[in-house]
Amino acid sequence: MPELPEVEALRAFLTDHLVGREIVRVLPVAVSVLKTYDPPPTALEGRTVTAVARHGKFLDIDTGGPHLVTHLARAGWLQWKDRLPDGAPRPGKGPLALRVALATGEGFDLTEAGTQKRLAVYVTEDPATVPGIARLGADPLAADFDEERLAGLLAGERRQIKGALRDQGLIAGIGNAYSDEILHAARMSPFKIASNLTKEEVHGLHVALLATLTEAVDRSRGVAAGRLKAEKKSGLRVHGRTGEPCPVCGDTIREVSFADSSLQYCPTCQTGGKPLADRRMSRLLK
Predict the structure, then answer these.
(1) Cα 58–chain centre separation
(2) Does the chain have fewer CB atoms within 10 Å around its N or its C terminus?
């Protein structure tokens, strides 16, 4: 799933490639992709893109009137085309969900792999009316996201820190991969209760959170949209690397599986050398 660093890189890429250019066609291909009907997608046609913004994991293309907002979900992606194919795309079983064509002949496709169609597109006069944006919590790259702000968000959170970091209503933009990376950098168990963090632990978590996200954004800056997935994977230290050696201590990276996801961690760096039990079968290591 694209998370804050990748969506931020896409925002920068689209700012360079869309702002000042006229949209001539917006073509929904998959029935499920469009979540709004008023205004229609045709309201964007003939308008010039004035800005591209990011709200958590949402991309927001502004035309100085209607906005085209998208959330790529787990398996969605944006594919830039220097030259779009001639003719309208045909609906079918392929990954293409929506196409945006510019007057220059350039444009982009929104695609989604797999059978679970969760990619979402909204055409709206006000992005704040999009339900997912309306509930977003603090942006961790905002200037006011200081250590005190993080401490306040975690106070009273009687759940594991892994889940708290992934909650978009608490902190916007962090998903499964970067929560693993942040907790590894902070040398913290993913099952530690968020409200039990000491002041020193909150400080370490804040430092790790900002460093991890900032470094990921810096790595992605200037990378073409089509290469961002590979860039994300290459920069991850623990997530998706079960069985590999930890790059910090050399211990074997381990995994805990859930119904529809998994987390990865280093026992030496994060849990005092003790493997975490599968939470479906045993009590959690705190």
Answers:
(1) 8
(2) C
How far apart (Å, rounded) are the C-alpha atoms in residues 215 and 232? 11
pLDDT digits (tens, 9 = 90+) for 233-275: 888 999 999 999 999 999 999 999 887 789 999 999 999 999 9
CA distance 209 to 198: 16
Asked whether 63 and 19 are in contact (CB, 8 A), the reply is: no
Length reported for the chain: 286
The structure's pTM equals 0.91
Which DSSP state fits 160?
A: B
Long-range contacts, stretch 277-286, CB < 8 angstroms, 24+ apart: 279/191, 284/160, 284/191, 285/189, 285/191, 286/189, 286/191, 286/192, 286/193, 286/196
In angstroms, rounded to a whole number, what is the distance separating the alpha carbons of residues 229 and 217?
13
User: Mean pLDDT, to the nearest integer, of 135-157?
Assistant: 96
pLDDT at 279: 53
Q: What does the pLDDT read at residue 277?
A: 80
pLDDT above 50 for 283? no
Per DSSP, the residues of 95-150 read SEEEEEEETTS-EEEEEE-SS----EEEEES-GGGSHHHHT--B-TTSTT--HHHH
For tokens 């890189």, the residue is: 9
Residue 154: strand, helix, or coil: helix
CA dist 206 and 218 (Å) reads: 18
**Lowest mean pLDDT across 46-55, 145-154, 231-240:** 231-240
Q: Nearest-CA neighbor of 48 among 63, 33, 36?
A: 63
Helices 199-220 and 147-154, packing angle to 10 deg: 110
Residue 267 CA to residue 250 CA, distance in Å, equals: 10
